[in-house]
Amino acid sequence: MERSWDDPKVPNPHPFKYLINAPKICANQPVFLMIYVHTATGNYKRRMVIRQTWANPRYFPDTNIRLVFVCGRTDDKNPSAQAALAFEAEQYGDIVQEDFHDSYKNLTYKGVAALKWISLHCRHARFILKSDDDIFVNMFTLLRHLKSLDQHGIENRGLLMCLVWTHMKVMREGKWAISKAEWPEDHYPTYCSGSAFTMSTDVAIALHNVSYQVPFFWVDDFYITGLLPLKLGTVKHKQFMSTYVLNGKQLEEKFTGPQWYTYIFSHVHNLNSIQSVWNKLVKLANGEIRAEIKYALPGELAALAAEADRKEAESKKKKA
């Protein structure tokens, strides 16, 4: 693999260094599904919930899954947040942090960081799942679907499976406003909802390699799943719309109802409801293990997180 990320001559270099890394997560073992989650440094509880529920390997003993959380650096004025993250990384070994400022308009850097990490440390995985940390995933149905690709002899290379957006209008006003200078067309080419998508690992590696040749665009879902595949010309967007629950308030209704096995992804409207939903889903899927989510962060991490949150609140108060 060519080392392009720190070459200033390429159109879109990615020169950021690792502040925290987890290079051995996939080492010396076959991996069926590598999960990477976009997170923010202060989202401790969200990460704890994901570790203990849908991305917990103990619920899938016959399938080798791995999990990593990807983020940028914290506010330099809040060293407590960095200390808390470093302690969390030491405890769980699943944090990857690069030296870019973690902000809304830098999410594309986060996406490329994840693709780079996979290319370096987990390129032998069969499939890749990208998720935001406010997404709930029915892993039972997702894994069943991915395994069925092999069983039915379906080509599992070049796949990008997602909620596909086609001919989406470019917003010129509001939070997501895009100027004519940034994107002159009135509509976007085909791309995926960035909340969650699944791809074959060859796609992740190809997207990483081509990212250095495609100029930076701050709308990360469009850049990663739209512009990069467009440049490659070999990626097939597979529509998964029916598996997404777009209204997070319907999470429990859909994932614990009689058609639970047809849904895979949903936004989380209420973090405190996840334990109940997950336990019901586990029972529906196999009637086995129940989750006992500990929302209270363990020991020293709780103290570090509280101090980081306090300083963040003080910083926001001063700005207001």
From TrEMBL:
| Transmembrane parts of this sequence | none
The entry's localization annotation reads:
Golgi apparatus membrane
Chief place where the protein resides: Golgi
Membrane topology is: Single-pass type II membrane protein
Magnesium recorded as keyword: no
One GO term in the molecular function aspect is:
hexosyltransferase activity
Task: Write down the EC number.
Answer: 2.4.1.-
Q: Which UniProt keywords apply?
A: Glycoprotein, Glycosyltransferase, Golgi apparatus, Membrane, Signal-anchor, Transferase, Transmembrane, Transmembrane helix
**Which InterPro entries does the UniProt record give?**
Glyco_trans_31
Gene3D superfamilies xref list: 3.90.550.50
Keyword check for Heme, yes or no: no
One cellular component term (GO) for this entry is: Golgi membrane
What family does this belong to? Belongs to the glycosyltransferase 31 family.
Q: What is this protein called?
A: Hexosyltransferase
Q: Which organism is it from?
A: Capitella teleta (Polychaete worm)
